[in-house]
């Protein structure tokens, strides 16, 4: 009962129309969310995004059966980060998550800060690129290189982008991540 009450409260909090805000192109997404959450006055004028959350009871098979109109084949299923309380035999899980947090880049001889793009890739000890080892999110195909968002002329970009690195257990000790930092021209 307490969980149902909590969910209803969350639904009420999340249900109002989230108004659209004009933001700077250098502004991190986290600060945009904070502004939306802190907004007191709701004057949406027909613009915005409707967000609704609902907890569905049962395991995945039961939810797919009972709520087939909500969960179909195209629905991405994300496994919970962390370990379950009970680990079943045969449930092999070797999840590696990497979060690109932030950086500080000097502008050098330029008058304005650089437009930095971070590229992440996985290589083995022989220098061979591991194909499709990086997964940007649930439901996405693996990619060989992950490229970050590029913030326009920001000295200290904050990305907070998390990816999953999928490497066979026996290969983990023989692989490494390569991060390359590159200035991207605004003409590219």
From TrEMBL:
Any one GO molecular-function label of the UniProt entry: small GTPase binding
Keyword set, alphabetical order: Cytoplasm
Any single GO CC term annotated in Swiss-Prot or TrEMBL for this entry: plasma membrane
Chief location category: cytoplasm
Bilayer-spanning residue ranges: none
Keyword Cytoplasm: yes
Cell compartment(s), UniProt: Cytoplasm
GO biological process, any: small GTPase-mediated signal transduction
Keyword Cytoplasm attached: yes
PROSITE patterns: C2_DOCK (PS51650)
Source taxon at top rank: Eukaryota
Cited Gene3D superfamilies: C2 domain
Domain C2 DOCK-type: 93-188
InterPro entries with a match to the protein in the record: C2_DOCK-type_domain, C2_domain_sf, DOCK, DOCK_N
Family that this chain belongs to: Belongs to the DOCK family.
Protein name, as recorded: Dedicator of cytokinesis protein 5
Gene source species: Cuculus canorus
């Amino acid at each position: 009962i307490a969980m149902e009450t909590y969910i209803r409260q969350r639904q009420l909090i999340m249900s109002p129309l989230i108004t659209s805000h004009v933001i700077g192109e250098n502004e991190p997404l986290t600060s945009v969310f904070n502004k939306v959450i802190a907004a007191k006055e709701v004057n949406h004028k027909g613009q915005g995004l409707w967000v609704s959350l609902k907890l569905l009871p049962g395991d995945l098979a039961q939810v797919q059966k009972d709520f087939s109109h909500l969960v179909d084949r195209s629905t991405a299923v994300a496994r919970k980060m962390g370990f379950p309380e009970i680990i079943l035999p045969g449930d092999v899980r070797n999840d590696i998550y990497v979060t690109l947090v932030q950086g500080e880049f000097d502008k050098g001889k330029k008058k304005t800060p650089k437009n930095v793009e971070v590229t992440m890739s996985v290589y083995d000890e022989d220098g061979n690129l591991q194909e499709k080892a990086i997964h940007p999110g649930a439901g996405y195909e693996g990619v060989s290189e992950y490229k970050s968002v590029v913030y326009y002329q920001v000295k200290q970009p904050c990305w907070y982008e998390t990816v999953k690195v999928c490497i066979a257990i026996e290969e983990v000790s023989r692989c490494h991540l390569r991060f390359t930092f590159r200035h991207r021209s605004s003409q590219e």
